[in-house]
Amino acid sequence: MTVEKIEISAKGQWFHVPALRIGSKHIIVRGKWLKIAIVHDEEWLETEVEDPQYCASRLKNETSHDLRADIFSFTQKIPATRPKYEYAYEWDSVAVVEIESFKHWWENLPQETRKNVRRAEKRGVSTKIRAFDQNLLQDLLVLNNDSPVRQGKVFTHYGKTLEQVAKDQRDFLDRSDYICAYHDEELIGVIKLVYRGDVASILTFLPKASHNDKRPANAMIAKAVELCEQKGIRYLTYGMFNYGNKKDTPLREFKIRNGFQEVLAPRFYIPLTYRGALAIKLGLHRGLIGMLPHSVITFLVAVRAKWYGLRMSRCSSTSERSTCNRQMERSSPPAGSNLSSSSNYSSANPS
Questions:
Q1: Radius of gyration for the alpha carbons in the chain, expressed in angstroms and rounded
Q2: What would the pLDDT profile of 212-270 be if each residue is shown by its tens digit?
Q3: On the CB side of 272, how many CA atoms lie within 13 Å of its CA?
Q4: Cα 211 vs. chain centroid, distance in angstroms?
Q5: CA torsion angle 243 286 66 41 (round to 10)
Q6: Per residue in 87-133, pLDDT tens?
Q7: What is the rounded distance in angstroms from the CA atom of residue 96 to the CA atom of residue 16?
Q8: CATH, domain range 96-261
């Protein structure tokens, strides 16, 4: 149980932040006026928080300014969906494929999705499991540079160096597989699958947009389900099903068409201060995505996509395109500890 500095990724950049180590887990604090303590990389760990009350007590007594928090939040790992504790909780909407067998998954897919998997094969797409090595690293560098914009926003991994790509991929290599989609000798998609006991979670999902007509995204999901069946893994997860009140997105539709369903897992909130208790009572701990109506979120996402589209159009019309890209990529560490705890980057082309 010590205070350390750990390196985390946020918006494609790496930062050192203070962390409280309790057992094998690190707790970091994010937020500005409302500070929430979370378990770093919780969604990729093999086990849950063992003693949440001890963690909360340790945080309450923490003297370090950077680790003082108003709320301690943690979740239960799928498939534990029944709340184990009496703390205040809300439901995390997790995208899950429960794998009885590949055949069962396949037979319950929409006809169009099955056609897309077959279409990928007919158009020359092959999938294979690869070890992380220098050759794969070079392929990932090229894949990152396929497009500077993905899902209507700047792709923060575009234009990175080989060393930066290697750093982004360094986590969980001892319990990960890379599912790669190829057309001829060209890498046109990759999934990094992290194993967590009876759960496999998609950490990186990156099909190549310029080869979307070959449906590599569908082919890789099919390979992931097949691989899980071979390893006796019961659950395949791919991030959230609904992100707060943000619903009806292309990514959500892609998940539905590929057999993912919503599973609700309890996320607990333990107040550590009076401010934290009040925030939980008023629902302020949910953040903007959890508070704004879906219609407002949809409007803002559309505005953002149009803005980035205009920026990229302006960049492409000048001889300083590379400089413009670098300016759009620029990111400064957020004030305090308002940082994402995951280095995941995903981009699905709905198919």
A1: 21
A2: 999 999 999 999 999 999 999 999 999 999 876 567 788 999 999 999 999 999 999 99
A3: 26
A4: 23
A5: -30
A6: 999 999 999 999 999 999 999 999 999 999 999 999 999 999 998 99
A7: 32
A8: 3.40.630.30
User: Could you give the CA distance from residue 169 to residue 174 in angstroms, rounded to a whole number?
Assistant: 12
Of the candidates 240, 265, 286, the one whose C-alpha atom is nearest the C-alpha of residue 71 is 286
Q: CA 75, CA 191: separation in Å to the nearest integer?
A: 24
- Sign of torsion, CA 296 301 306 310? positive
Residue ranges of domains in the chain:
2-89+268-329, 96-261
Are 10 and 334 spatial neighbours (Cβ–Cβ below 8 Å)? Answer: yes
Which one, of 24, 26, 32, lies nearest residue 7 by Cα? 26
Question: How do beta strands 153-154 and 149-150 pair?
Answer: antiparallel
What are the CA-CA distances from residue 250 to residues 92, 120, 189, 309, 313 (Å)?
20, 20, 18, 17, 23
- pLDDT category of residue 344 using cuts at 50, 70 and 90: low
- Which tokens go with 149? 């914009």
- Amino acid identity of residue 120, one-letter, is A
Q: Strand pairing of 36-39 and 71-75?
A: parallel
**pLDDT recorded at residue 117:** 97
- pLDDT at residue 311, as a whole number: 59
